[in-house]
Amino acid sequence: MIDQIIESTEYLQSKGFDQPEIGIILGTGLGQLVDEIDIIAEASYNHIPNFPTATVEFHKGKLIYGILEGKKVVVMQGRFHVYEGYSLQDVTFPVRIMEKLGITTLLVSNASGAINLDYKKGELMLIDDHINLQGGSPLAFKGVSELGERFTDMSAPYDADINSKFENIAKEHNITLHKGVYASVVGPQLETRAEYRMLKIMGSDAVGMSTVPEIIVANHLNLKVAAVSVLTDECDPENLKPVDISEIIAMAGKAEPNMITLFKELIKTL
Questions:
Q1: Count of domains observed in the chain
Q2: Are 242 and 211 in contact (CB under 8 A)?
Q3: Which of 5, 120, 142, 229 is least enclosed, having the fewest CB within 10 Å?
């Protein structure tokens, strides 16, 4: 993997990706932040050596480098998932590349379903902790200790200082920002009523199919990391209705301006 990381990094450096400070992963239906960036360089995933290719129709497939609020950023416009058939190492490979390029902070967004019924669709949730239900670890491979501490500490995977700043920004801009526990499942099927009940008993406030692998690797690389979920549906097992994926995408788009405000205002402070 080390050779692959070097090859991918050198390719991006040759395309003008020059010492970004902050990495950003844009989740489902949350691509409009790109419009706020003064773009210097970009690379399609299928042109980057060793990179996976996004196969989900509402996930773009570009790595973008530019200036946002005076900071050099590298942005994943579209991410990878285990449900696409990728390994956890594939899913998290871009995080390793962004770190090699120079980032010290990783910001992540995603769409998720609200298990906590006090939270409503269209609102945002700051991830304070998580439960990994993806059936494996992105650190479970030979040679991982050459890239960082094998037994990575996860007692506080989300940066408390960044989370505090997010909460202050939300108050200043009258944005509803809950704080809770995110459960990450494999998917791509949505949950049954019994599974939603289980997730609630386990202490989950929201459920999705991404993010946790990237967070684990970010901690492995000693990056500061924070993540925000757009709650796109309400997962009430006693009143469960079929979910329309187009409605989820539309709800993510509706909440997107608030997400963009949070990210832009935060980046000003970093």
A1: 1
A2: no
A3: 142
Q: When comparing pLDDT for 183 and 58, which is higher?
A: 183
Task: Evaluate if residue 252 carries a pLDDT over 90.
Answer: no
Which is nearest to 189 in space by CA: 48, 66, 81, 30?
81
Q: How far is CA 188 from CA 101, 185, 195, 234, 262, in A?
A: 31, 9, 14, 17, 28
Find where tokens 């692998």 sit: 213
Domain extent at residue 225: 2-269
* Cα–Cα dist 108/6, whole Å: 24
Length of the chain: 270
d(CA 74, CA 71): 10
Q: Do 207 and 182 meet the contact criterion of CB atoms below 8 Å apart?
A: yes
CATH code at 170? Answer: 3.40.50.1580
Q: Where are the beta strands (DSSP E) in the chain?
A: 22-26, 38-44, 62-68, 71-77, 105-114, 124-133, 177-185, 206-208, 224-234
Single-letter code of the amino acid located at 66 = G
Which of 60-64, 94-98, 152-156, 167-171 has the weakest average pLDDT? 60-64
| pLDDT at 122 exceeding the cut of 60 | yes
